[in-house]
Amino acid sequence: MKSKFRIKGLDCANCASGLERALNKIEGIENAVISFMTERLEIEYDENNKDEILKKVKKVIKKEEPDVTIEEI
Amino acid sequence: MKKKGIKIIISLILFLIALIINFNNELVNNIIFLVAYIIVGFEILRKAIRNITRGKIFDENFLMSVATIGAFGIGEFPEAVAVMLFYQIGELFQNYAVDKSRKSISNLMDIRPDFAYVERDSEIKKVDPDEVKIGEIIVVKPGEKIPLDGTVIEGDSSIDTKALTGESLPQDVNEGSQVISGCINLTGFIKIKVSKEYGESTVSKILDLVENASSKKSQSENFITKFAKYYTPIVVIIAVFLAIIPPLLIDGATFSDWIYRALSFLVVSCPCALVISIPLSFFGGIGGASKMGILIKGSNYLEQLANTEIIVFDKTGTLTEGVFEVQKVKAIDISEDELLKITAYAENYSNHPISLSVKKAYGKEIDEKQIQDTDELSGRGIVAKIENKEILVGNEKLMNEKQIKFDKCKDIGTVLYIAINRKFTGYIVISDKIKKDSKEAIEDLKKNNVKETIMLTGDRKAVGESVAKELGIDKVYTELLPNDKVEKVENLLEETSEKGKLAFVGDGINDAPVLAISDIGIAMGGLGSDAAIEAADIVLMTDEPSKIVSAINLSKRTMKIVKENIIFAIFIKILVLILSAVGLSTMWWAVFADVGVSIIAILNALRVLRVKK
Predict the structure, then answer these.
(1) What are the tens digits of pLDDT across the range B165-219?
(2) CB atoms within 10 A of CB B532
(3) Binary contact (A64, B229; C-beta < 8 A)
(4) Among residues B31, B48, B266, B348, which is most buried (max CB within 10 A)?
(5) Minimal Cα–Cα distance from A53 to chain B, Å?
(6) Domains, in order of start, for chain A
C-alpha cells in the first residue's frame, strides 16, 4: 500500500535524505521517498499494519527532525 | 524568513562596526562580536544542543556550533562571527532559491480550476469542480478555465491550450468538439457536457504527475546523497585528528594553530549546497519541460534522456498523422468525381479508416436509397449493388478473384481498385500523411548524437520503407504484429551500450507493452489520452515529434549544470580542505567553500528554470 504526505519544516535537502534513510529502516516499510523540492513524502508499506507503521513513522520523524510535520494527502 | 533576514542584517551591521571601526579596545570589540554572534546564531545553537541529546553529531547545526565556539575558544572572534553569519546568509539564500523555484513551478502549473458553473434544475450554480458529475452540463465564460473534460454541446469559441501543450495558437472549438480541462476559454460562451469526473480529468492527472515527478530520483541525486553520507563523518574525523595529533607529535606545533585548521575542516564539512543543487536542477528541468508541453514522470528519465542512443518510432500516429487521406483518383472512361461517388456509396456502411477517408474525400450526402446491397469481403474489399450496377471495390486480391483485368498501380499507399459491371474503371490511392516536423526531428536527433533511428510498423513493406526513406530513418522493420514489436525492442535493448539508452516513441494507444519495456517510453498526443499518460515515462502533450528533440536538449542542459555543480563544489571543498590542512588557507576561505560554493551552485541550478519557449 502507498500513502502520500505533505511534509513541512525540513531545513535542507541533506536533512531530507537523512530522514528518508531513517524512515526506510522502519520494519514494515518497503520504500520511503522524500522529495525536498515538492515537500512530499511517499511511503510503501505493509497494509496489515497500517496504524502501527504510521505511528512509527511519526515517532521517527519526531526523533530525527522535531520541527517537521506531516499531513496525509 | 523575514525575521531571519532582520537578524542577519542587525548582526552584519554589528559585525562590520566591530571589524571596521575597531574601538581600540579588545574587550568592547569582542563584546560586540559576541552580541552579533548570538543574534544570528542562537537558533543554530539551540538546535545543536537539541541534536546532541539525540545523538546526531554530524548534523550541520552541531558542526557549525562547534566550529564557531572553537574559534572563540582560540580567540578568533571575527572568524567565529563570520562563519555563523555567512552560514545563515547561505541558508537564507538557499530558502529563497528553493521557494522561488517551487513558486515558478506552481505558477507554471497554474492550471488547476477553482470552480465550475454547473447547470442544475435550470439554474446555474457555482460549485467546486470536484462536485460535478459525469453527464452534467457546465457553462464556461470567456476568460475562464475549463474545469472538466467534456464535449461542447452549445456555442463556438477558441481555447488557449498553451499551459498544457506549449502551443501558442488558440484552437477553435464548436458543437461536438472535445475539450480538455485546464485550457482557457478565450472568446465565446460554451456549454460543455462533462465526460470525466474531476479526479480523472486531464488537469488532475497532469498536476499529479508533475508533483510526483521528483520522487523518482536520478542517479546523480542518489550519488550525491551517498557522497554526503560519507563525506561529513570523514571530514569531521580528520578534523579531530588534525586538532590533536600534530601538536603532540611535531616539535613546535601549537594547539591553537592546529585547532584553527581543524575548525576550517568543520566549516567545509557541510554538504548541503551540493545536496540541494542537484534536485533543484532536476526540479527546474521538469518544470521547464512541462512549460513546453513535455511531461516527464521522474528525474531519472530526465537524466537518462541525455544518453539516448537508439530511438525507436512507431509509424502510424507518431511520425505520420495517422489520418488516411485520398491522395489520387484515377478514372477510366468516367469522371473522377463519378468514380469517387460510386466508391463512397459502396463503402457507405463500412467504418474502416480507408472507407471513412473515401467518404470524407467525396464530402457530399449519401442517398442510401440508391444502395441496393453491399457485402464486405474480409481482407479483400466490398461488393455492392448500386442503381442496378454491380460495383467491386477492393485490393488486387479481389480483382484477381473476380478475374478482372486491371492496370496495376505502383503508388505507395493503399490502393482501391474499382470495377463497374465487371469492367475495370480506375483506382483510388489512399495514404497516411507524414507529419510536417517529422523529417526535421529525425535530422535534429542525429545532430544530437542519437546513433540510430529505427521505425517499427505493422504496415506493408513498400509503405513502411518509403516513409523511412523520406524521413531519413536508418532502419525499418515492417509488417510487424504487436508482439513482434515487443520482441524487436527487446533485441534492440541489447544493442545499446552500457550507458546508452533506448527510447521508444509511440502514440500510447496500442503500444503500452513496448513503452513499458523501453528504457524511456515516450507517448505522444497525451492530451486527453489516459492510456498514454499511464503507460509512458514521458508524455508529449502535442503530436509533434520535434518535441523529442527539445526534451533531449533540455535533458543535456540539465545534466551539464548538474555535472558542473558536482565537480565545482567537490573540487573547491577538497582544495580548501587540503590548503587548510597544510596551513595555507584561512577560515575565511572555508566560509567561501561552504557558503560561496552553495550560492554559486544554486544560482547555476536556477539557470535551468530559464527555458526558451
Answers:
(1) 777 788 888 888 888 888 889 888 999 999 988 888 888 877 777 777 777 888 8
(2) 26
(3) no
(4) B266
(5) 21
(6) 2-72 (3.30.70.100)
